[in-house]
Design a protein that fits this description.
Blueprint: H1 7-20, H2 24-29, H3 32-39, H4 46-61, H5 70-73, H6 81-92, H7 101-110, H8 118-132, H9 137-151, E1 190-200, E2 203-208, E3 219-220, E4 223-225, H10 232-244, E5 248-260, E6 265-275, E7 287-290, H11 302-314
Parallel strand pairs: 1-6
Antiparallel strand pairs: 1-2, 1-4, 2-3, 2-7, 5-6
Helix pairs in contact: 6-9, 7-9
Bound molecules: iron/sulfur cluster.
Residues 106, 109-110, 151-152, 157-159, 162, 164-165, 168, 170-171, 176 line the site of iron/sulfur cluster.
Protein backbone atom coordinates (compact mmCIF):
# COMPACT_ATOMS: atom_id res chain seq x y z
CA UNK A 1 0.00 0.00 0.00
CA UNK A 2 2.88 2.34 0.72
CA UNK A 3 4.31 2.13 -2.80
CA UNK A 4 3.73 5.62 -4.31
CA UNK A 5 1.31 6.52 -1.49
CA UNK A 6 1.83 8.57 1.67
CA UNK A 7 1.56 7.01 5.13
CA UNK A 8 -1.36 9.26 6.23
CA UNK A 9 -3.39 8.15 3.20
CA UNK A 10 -2.58 4.48 3.74
CA UNK A 11 -3.32 4.16 7.48
CA UNK A 12 -7.17 4.01 7.31
CA UNK A 13 -7.04 1.57 4.35
CA UNK A 14 -4.47 -0.59 6.15
CA UNK A 15 -6.51 -0.75 9.38
CA UNK A 16 -9.72 -1.69 7.52
CA UNK A 17 -7.81 -4.24 5.43
CA UNK A 18 -6.39 -5.93 8.54
CA UNK A 19 -9.89 -6.14 10.03
CA UNK A 20 -11.26 -7.82 6.91
CA UNK A 21 -8.25 -9.91 5.90
CA UNK A 22 -6.12 -10.63 8.96
CA UNK A 23 -4.18 -13.49 7.30
CA UNK A 24 -2.61 -14.20 3.91
CA UNK A 25 -5.00 -17.16 3.64
CA UNK A 26 -7.93 -14.70 3.84
CA UNK A 27 -6.40 -12.65 0.99
CA UNK A 28 -5.67 -15.72 -1.14
CA UNK A 29 -9.26 -16.96 -0.77
CA UNK A 30 -11.00 -13.58 -1.23
CA UNK A 31 -12.91 -12.67 -4.37
CA UNK A 32 -10.82 -10.21 -6.43
CA UNK A 33 -13.68 -7.75 -7.00
CA UNK A 34 -14.30 -7.56 -3.26
CA UNK A 35 -10.57 -7.03 -2.62
CA UNK A 36 -10.50 -4.24 -5.22
CA UNK A 37 -13.49 -2.64 -3.48
CA UNK A 38 -11.42 -2.49 -0.25
CA UNK A 39 -8.62 -0.87 -2.26
CA UNK A 40 -10.94 1.61 -4.02
CA UNK A 41 -9.55 5.16 -3.86
CA UNK A 42 -5.98 4.09 -3.07
CA UNK A 43 -5.07 3.85 -6.78
CA UNK A 44 -2.39 1.73 -8.49
CA UNK A 45 -4.73 -1.26 -8.46
CA UNK A 46 -2.06 -3.63 -9.77
CA UNK A 47 -0.68 -3.60 -6.22
CA UNK A 48 -3.91 -5.16 -4.98
CA UNK A 49 -4.07 -7.82 -7.70
CA UNK A 50 -0.38 -8.64 -7.24
CA UNK A 51 -0.86 -8.95 -3.49
CA UNK A 52 -3.63 -11.49 -4.03
CA UNK A 53 -1.44 -13.41 -6.52
CA UNK A 54 1.48 -13.34 -4.05
CA UNK A 55 -0.75 -14.52 -1.18
CA UNK A 56 -2.08 -17.36 -3.37
CA UNK A 57 1.47 -18.28 -4.38
CA UNK A 58 2.60 -18.35 -0.72
CA UNK A 59 -0.33 -20.61 0.26
CA UNK A 60 0.26 -23.01 -2.66
CA UNK A 61 4.02 -23.03 -3.12
CA UNK A 62 5.39 -22.15 0.32
CA UNK A 63 2.94 -23.86 2.71
CA UNK A 64 1.65 -20.48 3.93
CA UNK A 65 5.08 -19.21 5.00
CA UNK A 66 6.49 -16.04 3.40
CA UNK A 67 9.86 -17.02 1.89
CA UNK A 68 12.81 -15.28 3.53
CA UNK A 69 15.53 -15.85 0.94
CA UNK A 70 16.02 -12.98 -1.53
CA UNK A 71 15.75 -15.06 -4.72
CA UNK A 72 12.39 -16.61 -3.77
CA UNK A 73 11.01 -13.40 -2.26
CA UNK A 74 11.75 -11.24 -5.30
CA UNK A 75 9.96 -13.74 -7.57
CA UNK A 76 6.60 -12.98 -5.95
CA UNK A 77 4.19 -10.85 -8.00
CA UNK A 78 4.53 -7.13 -7.23
CA UNK A 79 7.90 -7.49 -5.52
CA UNK A 80 10.85 -5.60 -6.99
CA UNK A 81 14.34 -4.82 -5.71
CA UNK A 82 13.17 -2.09 -3.35
CA UNK A 83 10.36 -4.06 -1.66
CA UNK A 84 12.57 -7.15 -1.34
CA UNK A 85 15.40 -5.12 0.21
CA UNK A 86 13.12 -3.16 2.56
CA UNK A 87 11.21 -6.22 3.84
CA UNK A 88 14.18 -8.58 4.16
CA UNK A 89 16.41 -5.99 5.85
CA UNK A 90 13.77 -4.68 8.28
CA UNK A 91 11.99 -7.97 9.07
CA UNK A 92 14.99 -10.34 8.83
CA UNK A 93 18.03 -8.07 9.20
CA UNK A 94 19.47 -9.19 5.88
CA UNK A 95 22.06 -7.00 4.24
CA UNK A 96 20.15 -5.38 1.32
CA UNK A 97 20.19 -1.58 0.77
CA UNK A 98 16.62 -0.32 0.12
CA UNK A 99 17.32 2.54 -2.26
CA UNK A 100 14.21 4.71 -2.19
CA UNK A 101 14.13 8.42 -3.13
CA UNK A 102 15.11 9.51 0.38
CA UNK A 103 18.11 7.21 0.68
CA UNK A 104 19.31 8.07 -2.83
CA UNK A 105 19.17 11.80 -2.01
CA UNK A 106 20.98 11.46 1.32
CA UNK A 107 23.70 9.27 -0.13
CA UNK A 108 24.17 11.32 -3.30
CA UNK A 109 24.86 14.29 -0.98
CA UNK A 110 26.98 12.28 1.43
CA UNK A 111 29.15 11.04 -1.46
CA UNK A 112 28.74 14.25 -3.52
CA UNK A 113 27.42 12.42 -6.57
CA UNK A 114 25.49 14.78 -8.79
CA UNK A 115 24.31 12.61 -11.63
CA UNK A 116 22.24 9.54 -10.76
CA UNK A 117 23.85 7.40 -13.43
CA UNK A 118 23.82 3.58 -13.08
CA UNK A 119 27.51 3.87 -12.07
CA UNK A 120 26.77 6.35 -9.25
CA UNK A 121 23.79 4.30 -8.07
CA UNK A 122 26.10 1.33 -7.81
CA UNK A 123 28.60 3.41 -5.78
CA UNK A 124 25.74 4.48 -3.46
CA UNK A 125 24.48 0.92 -3.06
CA UNK A 126 27.97 -0.42 -2.31
CA UNK A 127 28.53 2.28 0.30
CA UNK A 128 25.29 1.52 2.15
CA UNK A 129 26.11 -2.21 1.90
CA UNK A 130 29.52 -1.53 3.43
CA UNK A 131 27.87 0.28 6.40
CA UNK A 132 25.64 -2.76 6.87
CA UNK A 133 28.70 -4.81 7.83
CA UNK A 134 28.98 -2.67 10.95
CA UNK A 135 25.37 -2.50 12.14
CA UNK A 136 21.84 -3.77 11.77
CA UNK A 137 20.89 -3.56 8.05
CA UNK A 138 17.23 -2.87 8.88
CA UNK A 139 18.18 -0.03 11.24
CA UNK A 140 20.59 1.45 8.69
CA UNK A 141 17.94 1.48 5.95
CA UNK A 142 15.35 2.99 8.29
CA UNK A 143 17.79 5.57 9.70
CA UNK A 144 18.71 6.75 6.18
CA UNK A 145 15.03 6.88 5.17
CA UNK A 146 14.31 9.01 8.26
CA UNK A 147 17.27 11.34 7.67
CA UNK A 148 15.96 11.82 4.13
CA UNK A 149 12.39 12.55 5.16
CA UNK A 150 13.10 14.60 8.32
CA UNK A 151 16.51 16.26 7.91
CA UNK A 152 18.04 16.09 4.44
CA UNK A 153 14.96 17.30 2.56
CA UNK A 154 14.88 17.92 -1.21
CA UNK A 155 15.00 21.72 -0.97
CA UNK A 156 16.44 22.09 2.51
CA UNK A 157 19.34 20.12 3.98
CA UNK A 158 19.29 20.79 7.74
CA UNK A 159 22.93 19.74 8.16
CA UNK A 160 23.24 21.09 11.72
CA UNK A 161 20.74 18.41 12.84
CA UNK A 162 22.24 15.58 10.79
CA UNK A 163 24.18 12.67 12.30
CA UNK A 164 26.18 12.42 9.04
CA UNK A 165 27.31 16.06 9.22
CA UNK A 166 31.00 15.44 10.03
CA UNK A 167 31.76 13.20 7.08
CA UNK A 168 29.23 14.38 4.48
CA UNK A 169 30.97 15.70 1.36
CA UNK A 170 28.12 17.94 0.19
CA UNK A 171 28.02 19.54 3.66
CA UNK A 172 31.43 21.03 2.88
CA UNK A 173 29.94 22.96 -0.07
CA UNK A 174 27.72 26.05 0.13
CA UNK A 175 24.71 24.33 -1.34
CA UNK A 176 24.26 20.63 -0.57
CA UNK A 177 20.75 20.88 -2.05
CA UNK A 178 22.13 20.88 -5.62
CA UNK A 179 22.88 17.14 -5.16
CA UNK A 180 21.58 15.11 -6.90
CA UNK A 181 20.69 17.08 -10.05
CA UNK A 182 16.92 17.11 -10.47
CA UNK A 183 15.12 15.71 -13.45
CA UNK A 184 12.89 18.09 -15.36
CA UNK A 185 9.25 17.37 -14.62
CA UNK A 186 7.43 16.15 -17.68
CA UNK A 187 4.15 17.81 -18.63
CA UNK A 188 1.39 15.22 -18.44
CA UNK A 189 -1.20 15.04 -21.24
CA UNK A 190 -4.86 15.88 -20.68
CA UNK A 191 -7.64 13.93 -22.42
CA UNK A 192 -11.26 14.90 -23.01
CA UNK A 193 -13.36 11.83 -22.29
CA UNK A 194 -17.11 11.31 -22.71
CA UNK A 195 -19.10 8.61 -20.89
CA UNK A 196 -22.72 7.54 -21.04
CA UNK A 197 -25.03 6.19 -18.38
CA UNK A 198 -27.16 3.90 -20.51
CA UNK A 199 -30.50 3.14 -18.89
CA UNK A 200 -32.72 0.09 -19.31
CA UNK A 201 -35.75 0.77 -17.10
CA UNK A 202 -34.24 1.47 -13.64
CA UNK A 203 -30.90 -0.23 -14.36
CA UNK A 204 -27.73 1.17 -15.89
CA UNK A 205 -24.96 -0.51 -17.85
CA UNK A 206 -21.42 -0.90 -16.47
CA UNK A 207 -18.41 -2.58 -18.09
CA UNK A 208 -15.35 -4.07 -16.41
CA UNK A 209 -11.93 -2.83 -17.52
CA UNK A 210 -9.46 -5.36 -18.88
CA UNK A 211 -7.10 -6.59 -16.15
CA UNK A 212 -4.06 -5.76 -18.30
CA UNK A 213 -4.99 -2.07 -18.68
CA UNK A 214 -4.73 0.94 -16.37
CA UNK A 215 -7.36 0.59 -13.58
CA UNK A 216 -7.82 -3.04 -14.67
CA UNK A 217 -10.61 -4.98 -12.97
CA UNK A 218 -12.52 -1.81 -11.99
CA UNK A 219 -15.97 -1.01 -13.36
CA UNK A 220 -16.86 2.01 -15.49
CA UNK A 221 -19.45 3.46 -17.86
CA UNK A 222 -19.11 3.01 -21.63
CA UNK A 223 -17.38 5.88 -23.45
CA UNK A 224 -13.92 7.04 -24.44
CA UNK A 225 -11.59 9.78 -25.64
CA UNK A 226 -12.78 12.53 -27.98
CA UNK A 227 -11.12 12.71 -31.39
CA UNK A 228 -10.19 16.02 -33.01
CA UNK A 229 -13.26 17.88 -34.27
CA UNK A 230 -15.79 15.53 -32.64
CA UNK A 231 -18.67 16.79 -30.48
CA UNK A 232 -19.51 15.08 -27.19
CA UNK A 233 -22.50 13.37 -28.76
CA UNK A 234 -20.49 12.14 -31.77
CA UNK A 235 -17.79 10.67 -29.50
CA UNK A 236 -20.32 8.98 -27.28
CA UNK A 237 -22.36 7.41 -30.09
CA UNK A 238 -19.17 6.20 -31.80
CA UNK A 239 -17.62 4.76 -28.62
CA UNK A 240 -20.82 3.04 -27.48
CA UNK A 241 -21.30 1.51 -30.93
CA UNK A 242 -17.69 0.21 -30.80
CA UNK A 243 -17.84 -1.06 -27.19
CA UNK A 244 -21.45 -2.25 -26.93
CA UNK A 245 -22.54 -2.79 -30.54
CA UNK A 246 -25.69 -0.62 -30.43
CA UNK A 247 -26.89 2.91 -31.21
CA UNK A 248 -27.95 5.22 -28.41
CA UNK A 249 -30.05 8.31 -27.96
CA UNK A 250 -27.85 10.72 -26.05
CA UNK A 251 -30.13 12.63 -23.69
CA UNK A 252 -29.44 15.14 -20.90
CA UNK A 253 -25.93 16.17 -19.87
CA UNK A 254 -25.02 15.19 -16.30
CA UNK A 255 -21.91 17.36 -15.96
CA UNK A 256 -18.12 17.37 -16.20
CA UNK A 257 -15.43 16.42 -13.71
CA UNK A 258 -11.64 16.66 -13.79
CA UNK A 259 -9.25 14.09 -12.42
CA UNK A 260 -5.46 13.77 -12.36
CA UNK A 261 -3.82 10.35 -12.59
CA UNK A 262 -0.06 9.80 -12.25
CA UNK A 263 0.71 10.04 -15.99
CA UNK A 264 -2.24 11.96 -17.44
CA UNK A 265 -5.30 13.97 -16.51
CA UNK A 266 -8.86 13.78 -17.84
CA UNK A 267 -11.87 15.98 -18.19
CA UNK A 268 -14.82 13.58 -18.22
CA UNK A 269 -18.23 14.74 -19.45
CA UNK A 270 -21.16 12.41 -18.92
CA UNK A 271 -24.64 12.06 -20.37
CA UNK A 272 -27.75 10.01 -19.70
CA UNK A 273 -28.49 7.72 -22.66
CA UNK A 274 -30.96 5.05 -23.76
CA UNK A 275 -30.41 2.41 -26.41
CA UNK A 276 -32.27 2.93 -29.68
CA UNK A 277 -34.98 0.40 -30.58
CA UNK A 278 -34.09 -1.89 -27.64
CA UNK A 279 -31.08 -3.10 -29.62
CA UNK A 280 -29.05 -6.00 -28.22
CA UNK A 281 -25.82 -5.55 -26.31
CA UNK A 282 -22.80 -7.03 -28.08
CA UNK A 283 -19.57 -6.59 -26.12
CA UNK A 284 -16.42 -8.57 -25.42
CA UNK A 285 -16.01 -6.96 -21.97
CA UNK A 286 -17.65 -8.35 -18.80
CA UNK A 287 -20.76 -6.24 -18.11
CA UNK A 288 -23.62 -5.85 -15.64
CA UNK A 289 -26.95 -4.04 -15.57
CA UNK A 290 -27.19 -2.67 -12.04
CA UNK A 291 -29.37 -0.37 -9.97
CA UNK A 292 -27.64 2.80 -8.67
CA UNK A 293 -27.79 1.39 -5.11
CA UNK A 294 -25.48 -1.49 -6.18
CA UNK A 295 -22.63 0.90 -7.03
CA UNK A 296 -21.42 0.75 -3.44
CA UNK A 297 -20.74 -3.00 -3.82
CA UNK A 298 -18.34 -2.68 -6.79
CA UNK A 299 -14.97 -0.99 -7.30
CA UNK A 300 -14.96 2.11 -9.57
CA UNK A 301 -12.14 4.56 -10.44
CA UNK A 302 -11.94 7.72 -8.32
CA UNK A 303 -13.06 9.87 -11.28
CA UNK A 304 -16.38 7.99 -11.33
CA UNK A 305 -16.94 8.76 -7.66
CA UNK A 306 -16.81 12.47 -8.56
CA UNK A 307 -19.55 11.77 -11.11
CA UNK A 308 -21.57 9.83 -8.51
CA UNK A 309 -21.44 12.92 -6.25
CA UNK A 310 -23.09 14.99 -9.02
CA UNK A 311 -25.71 12.28 -9.64
CA UNK A 312 -26.48 11.99 -5.92
CA UNK A 313 -27.34 15.72 -5.95
CA UNK A 314 -29.23 15.72 -9.28
CA UNK A 315 -31.06 12.45 -8.87
CA UNK A 316 -29.99 9.41 -10.83
CA UNK A 317 -32.62 8.64 -13.40
CA UNK A 318 -32.80 10.22 -16.86
S1 LIG B 1 25.07 16.62 6.31
FE1 LIG B 1 23.54 17.83 5.25
S2 LIG B 1 23.71 17.30 3.10
FE2 LIG B 1 24.82 15.76 4.26
S3 LIG B 1 23.34 14.13 4.52
FE3 LIG B 1 23.20 15.43 6.35
S4 LIG B 1 21.61 16.93 5.87
FE4 LIG B 1 22.17 15.95 3.97
Amino acid sequence: MLQQTQVETVIPYYMKWLDKYPTLKNVAEANETILLKSWEGLGYYNRCRNFKKAATNIMKEHEGQIPTDYDSFIKMPGVGEYIAAAVLSIAHDQSHPALDGNIIRVMSRFLKRKKLSPYNRKIIKNHVQMWMEFGSPGDINQALMDIGSQVCKPNQANCYKCPLENSCMARKTDSPEIYPSSKLKKQIPNYDVVTGIIWKNDKLLILQRDEKNHLGGLWEFPGGKMKNGESHVQTLTREIKEECGFDVDVQSKIGSIKHIYSHFSIKMTSFHCVSKNNSTLNTTQPYKWIKPAQIKDLPFPKANHKLFAILNKQGWHV
